[in-house]
Amino acid sequence: MVEIAGVMRTDSGMFGLWSPAAFGHVSDYDSWEAELADDEDIARHLAAGAFVPVNIGFDGDFKIAVRVGSSADPAELTDRERGYLLMTSDPYVFLSAGVAVVSGIEYVHTLADIGLQVPLPMGRWCVRVALIQSDKEPGQRDEQGQPLPSALPAFTLLINPEQDPNSTYRTSVATFEQRAL
Predict the structure, then answer these.
(1) What phi and psi, each to the nearest 5 degrees, are found at residue 40?
(2) Closest alpha carbon to 116 in 129, 103, 106, 97
(3) If exposure means fewest CB atoms within 10 Å of the residue's CB, which of 12, 77, 78, 130 is most exposed?
(4) 18, 50 contact by CB (below 8 A)
(5) 2-161: what CATH class?
(6) Helices in 108-149 by DSSP H: which ranges?
(7) Smallest Cα–Cα separation from 15: which of 161, 149, 171, 155?
(8) For residues 35-53, b (16+ Cβ closer than 10 Å) or e, as one string?
(9) What is the pTM of this model?
């Protein structure tokens, strides 16, 4: 099992797991805008398995954890994360060429050395995004209200090998279904 975590920032309201191989031609703002500025463009990359959204709708710094499992040892939430789980997305498909990156969507280009580099063997992967209420866990904030290094991630991406090539995958830019209050 591979696990990588870090605090990242987005100024566009969305993070993503993305394939550097699929976006190798994106090298400046104009080429980025042509590929990712509109929801229709993002949806095209979702359907192709090149991008998985972590669409939060607002800017900020968030701790994100990525777990890569195998058929024998699937990636799952920890008991601690399950205790503060708010919701989990339906599965997205991701096609890996050997590595993936998690960053703010605005950093999807080859010139940015920002984000989590995730070693991910070539193949088809199933990705679920979990939204964790990390701010609800007692004792994990400092005097200024900032998360301690031991705090749970706000988002955990669970990446496992695809089990059924005939599976139906989520293609919505909205990562989570809206819940009725």
Answers:
(1) -65, -40
(2) 103
(3) 78
(4) yes
(5) mainly beta
(6) none
(7) 155
(8) bbeeeeebeebbeebbbbb
(9) 0.93
